[in-house]
Design brief:
- This protein has a five-stranded mixed beta sheet with strand order 1-2-3-4-5, sandwiched between helices.
- The radius of gyration is 22 Å and the shape is globular.
- By secondary structure, the protein is α+β, with helices and mostly antiparallel strands.
- Strand 1 and strand 2 form a beta hairpin.
- The protein has five helices and five strands, in the order ααααβββαββ.
- Helix content is 35%, strand content 26%.
Length: 184
Amino acid sequence: MENVVTRESMGATLRTVVCRRTGVSATQLRRRRAPFAGRVGPAQRRREPGVSGHAIVPSVRAMSTDQRHVLGFRGETLAAVHLERLGYAIIARNHRTRWGELDVVAHGHDVLVFCEVKSRRQGSGSPFDAFRGPKQHQVRRMAAAYLVEVIDRPTASEVRFDAIGVVLDAHGALVSLDHLEGAF
């Protein structure tokens, strides 16, 4: 029976690892533990009023501080807002497939839109310079994988591939946003 893994033994193991990595005691960890999304357990019921439940170990990886990732995230956010203004509902952002990541999947006007977003700093060329044949083929494969993998997606009579080019200045302010509907 010594090789049996139980919920209690797993919890103790995880607490030990978290405490070693963060330098926080197990008691502090129990006090500061954040709830899992959508689940109410005994820890939340016992929590004192006014005590914030900040997680020590995030359940989702923190966003990269690499400026290229920050630029890409900002461009994707601006593109999603643009599509929402046009009347589309954002179905998915950054959907991972084995061939890569779909930036934005939107639905509206009886069309399912797979949108590739390219972001650039002002003065570093056109965002569409990187959007050639191989990238278009990759987006098509990712879209096919999305259609197979995601069952609870909205139905549409048409599928369209759009490209959005976002140009930002050195401070992250929007310079231009070009939307090519049916880009390929």
